[in-house]
Amino acid sequence: MEFTTLIVKSVILVSFLSSQGSSRYHVNVAVMETHPMGNEIAAWDLELQEPMKERNVRDHEHSKPTDEMIIDAGYPSETHTVVTDDGYILTLHRIPHDVGGTYNRTRPVVFLQHGLLSSSADWVVTGPGKALAFLLSDQGYDVWMGNYRGNTYSHQHVNQDIDKKTYWAFSWGEMAEHDLPTMLSHMMEVTGQDTFYYIGHSMGTLTYYTACNYHHWIQNATRLMVGYGPHTIVANMISPVFGLMSQFANDIQWILDYLGLYEFLPSNWLIEWWAAKVCDESMMHQGICENLMFLVAGYNKNEMNSTALSYIMGHTPAGTSTMNMLHYGQSVNTGGWAGYDYGSDQLNLRRWNSTRPPTYKYDVITAPVALFWGENDWLVVPKDEAALAAKLPNLVLNQRVDEDAYTHLDFLWGMHNMEKVYGPTMELMEKY
């Protein structure tokens, strides 16, 4: 009976995630790049009987890469490439100084780290005077933006022959253990600075806190850590996407090993199913419900600039692994902050040298931490944010954004962010 149930659940998941069958899956041109594994997510042939509607691919104007958007805005732009100790090739983007400025090694350094399904583009896409990266540059900061493995800009590996299963076998745990320290150490080496400010959104906060468990030098070098939509536990998450993922979390290894669903690229059918659950008429009219990001994290019409929307949708979602999404699903089920559970003693022993994944600790996060949270956040509900705030040993600010409808993605693109979030952030940074 258990095996039959697993087969049924797997068929459902294949139907949800597979992009093959009677319709091709179209993604944003900014998201897909050529890499050794190709761009397919499945290693088998599957015919889906349910026809799917084709989705629009954004043109180049709406999906310019991060460095090009920076240059178009009149700012200097640098692109840096680093390699992690496990072979992933990552891209960092830098705005070394403001418009008309000059290189100066005494400029304070700030590192911006994107969240789930995102990229460095999110920090610049709304343009000068609005996007956080440009605002920080105008204030005299040397601005660096990271990109985690598997996203638009970090889609390569040193092993050209690596297979899909091996390449996509990562979650936010590997990003914290390998990616973040590699990018931060490179930034410090290039700038000659031994301290930095850190601003993370969503998964960019989770990975910082997790990285502190692996690399104590990170918290020691952090002047101030600012978290937008911050979290470790997500037990009370109300996102419908992760509600579904959590149902399959206990069957993950079988699904990954036997079905080959390694890269997270949901089918049109699944997008439309989620949309039917969460979208109203105004969201449908703007095309928001065709974008996975808004279905994952919610939408607030009070903060969304309709002119900028097409550019935002041209850069998101920026990609991740199915394993990463399922790790979040595990976190929903367990209510804890722990490493990825491979579902068997043998596999956990191979990865963790233990039959259970490690549980991460809060007392090692000794850097000053400021938190900003939204009342209407689907991913990080107030109860889960409060649990984090209560356990941080050096919390200097725990700020609710002054808007009842404020949600997870508003931290990136909200029209009133200068007043509600970015301004207070920069004022606090001046004190550290």
Describe the structure.
With 432 residues, the chain is an alpha/beta fold. It is built from 18 helices and nine strands. The protein has helices spanning 2-17, 66-72, 132-138, 164-167, 172-191, 203-214, 216-221, 240-248, 252-259, 268-278, 281-286, 292-297, 306-313, 322-334, 345-352, 382-391, 410-413, 417-429; strands at residues 78-83, 88-95, 109-113, 142-145, 156-157, 196-201, 222-228, 369-373, 395-400. Strands 1, 2, 3, 4, 5, 6, 7, 8 and 9 form a nine-stranded mixed sheet that branches. Helix 16 (382-391) links the parallel strand 8 and strand 9. Helix 8 (240-248) packs across helix 14. It is globular, with a radius of gyration of 20 Å. It starts with a helix and ends with a helix. The model is unreliable at 3-8 and 18-57 (pLDDT under 50).
Name the helicity range.
25-40%
Shape, please?
A: globular
How widely separated are the two ends?
59 Å
Q: In percent terms, what proportion of residues is strand? A: 5-15%
Instruction: Pick out the low-confidence regions.
Output: 3-8, 18-57
Mean pLDDT: 82
**What oligomeric assembly is this protein in?**
single chain
- How many helices? The count is 18
Structure at a glance:
By secondary structure, the chain is of the alpha/beta class. The chain has helices spanning 2-17, 66-72, 132-138, 164-167, 172-191, 203-214, 216-221, 240-248, 252-259, 268-278, 281-286, 292-297, 306-313, 322-334, 345-352, 382-391, 410-413, 417-429, and strands at 78-83, 88-95, 109-113, 142-145, 156-157, 196-201, 222-228, 369-373, 395-400.
